[in-house]
Structures are given as structure tokens and as C-alpha cells.
Amino acid sequence: MENYFNYFTEIEEQFRKCRSEPVLLSPLDWALIESWKDQGFPLAAVLVGIERAFGKFKNRKRTYRKVNTLAYCSQEVYRAAEESNSAAAQGGKAIAPKDESLAPFTAEEVSRFLDRCAAAVEYACHSAKEQGHKVLAEELAEGCAALRTLGAHIPPIATGYLEELERNLTTLEEKLHASLLRGTPMEELARLRAEVDRSLVTYRRRMMAAEVDLLERRSMKNRLLERYKIPRLSLFYM
User: Fold this and answer.
1) CA 43 to mean position of chain CA atoms
2) How far apart are CA 140 and CA 213, in angstroms?
3) Average pLDDT score over the chain
4) Pairwise CA distance, residues 120 & 155, whole Å
5) Do the beta carbons of residue 140 and residue 128 sit within 8 Å?
6) Prediction pTM value
7) How many Cβ atoms are within 10 Å of 86's Cβ, its own excluded?
8) How many CB atoms within 10 Å of residue 175?
9) Percentage helix, strand, coil, to 5, in the chain?
């Protein structure tokens, strides 16, 4: 399992470096990075793809415009990931990642993160209960209890433990997401979906349909979690 817990920060830094000036990534940019992670795009390949995209941009005759979104780099990132995976499959040398042998977090940092997540889910549980959403409140209470259990049993930090914890958090987040989908009124879901559709206009012009669909689903999930003030249950967001 290829696991880079600095996946997001390194990609953000590469984008800023190639752009040669500060820029804030949008929520959709972060969702795009997550879609790359979920598709198994190696971090090193993504960094190479971003660099190539900016190299082509700088070689254009007209350079008065600026690259303001990661969507511009999407095609080159996809190509670099395919090259890396193809080289690995053929026994060649894939684009090499950085050394990730050292655990990037301490036990105390992981404990604080799990406590914050549990507190947020607990708050959402109380809100659901006050609004009369009994089933949703019960499912959120189960999610909170699961997070408390994970936080109460933290062994000495090692990369293997973090990978297992990340898998558990991913499973728990998917369960919570399913609960929120069932417990949210249709009109509210429609409103969130309309917001996502409007925000994807620029991305649709630069990305393949399959990538846009994945980004749309990821963005919808993020909006729904934000609606209930529940943070992403992933060590990548620590």
C-alpha cells in the first residue's frame, strides 16, 4: 500500500513553486488531489505531472494568463501516473517516491486528532437529536463511539499502524457519509448538488468526463460533511 501522509501538502507546495507566486487552493482543488490519491496516483508522478504542465504553459506564445487551478495540470498528472504505473508493471523503474520510512505523526498528535473528530461527530449527533432525527442521531453516536475507541488504543506509532488506522477511518467516514445521505432532506441535497455543479464549470472544460464525475462525487461528499460540521476522518487532513 502506497501511503503518503504528506500527499496534500507536497502537491500544494509543488503547485505554488511552479506558479512562482502564492495561491490558495480551492475546495475543488483539494477534492481533485484526493481523487488522485484515491485512484492510486503516486505522489512523485503527480509532482512530475504538475511540473510538466507548467513547463508547457510557459512555452506558450501567450502567457498573459495565469494558472489558478490544479485542473490545468490534470491531463499531465494523468499521463505521468500512467507512465509510472506502466513502468512498474513492466518491471522498469517507476517514478521514485521520497523516503517515507519514518512515521510522520506522534501518538499525541494522533490522539488529539481523533479527539477532535469524535467531538465534532458528537456535536452533530446532539444536533440531529434536537431536530428529531432519531435514526441519524443513533448512527452518529455509533460513529463517535468508534472514534473514541480508536483514540483509546494507540500503540507506539509506526507506519504500519498508521496505514491500518487510515483504513479504519476511511471505512468509518464512508459509513457516516451514508448516514448523512439518508438523513438529509431531499431539498437540501438538491441545493448542495446545484452548488457543486456551478463550481465545476471550469473543471469540466479541462478534465475527462470520468474525472469530472469522480470529482463531483467527492465534492458532494465534502459539502455534506461540512454541512454537519464533521471533519474529514483521514490522517491526510491532520
Assistant:
1) 13
2) 28
3) 85
4) 24
5) yes
6) 0.71
7) 11
8) 15
9) 70, 0, 30
Q: What is the DSSP string of 20-72?
A: TS--PPPHHHHHHHHHHHHTT--HHHHHHHHHHHHHHHHTSS---S---SGGG
CA-angle at 223, arms to 48 and 108, nearest 5°: 70
CA Rg value for the chain: 20
Quickly count helices (H) and strands (E) in the chain: 10, 0
| Furthest-apart CA atoms within the chain: distance in Å | 61
Q: Is 76 helix (H, G, I), strand (E, B) or coil?
A: helix
pLDDT in tens, 108-142: 889 999 999 999 999 999 999 999 999 999 999 99
pLDDT of residue 115: 96
CA distance 17 to 188: 39
Higher pLDDT, 98 or 25: 25
Q: What is the pLDDT of residue 96?
A: 52
Question: Which value, to the nearest 10 degrees, does the dihedral of the CA atoms of residues 81, 83, 89, 92 take?
Answer: -130
Residues 35-48 as b or e (16 or more Cβ within 10 Å = b): bbbeeebbbbbbbb
Confidence at residue 3, expressed as pLDDT on a 0 to 100 scale: 45
Q: Quick one: which of 151, 45, 141, 73 has its CA closest to 107?
A: 151
Whole-number Å distance between alpha carbons of 14 and 191? 34
Nearest CA among 100, 18, 9, 1 for reference residue 67: 18
SS3 212: helix
User: pLDDT digits over 14-30, tens only?
Assistant: 998 988 777 788 888 88
Measure the CA dihedral 198/69/113/225, to 10°: 10
For 168, the grid coordinates are 479504519
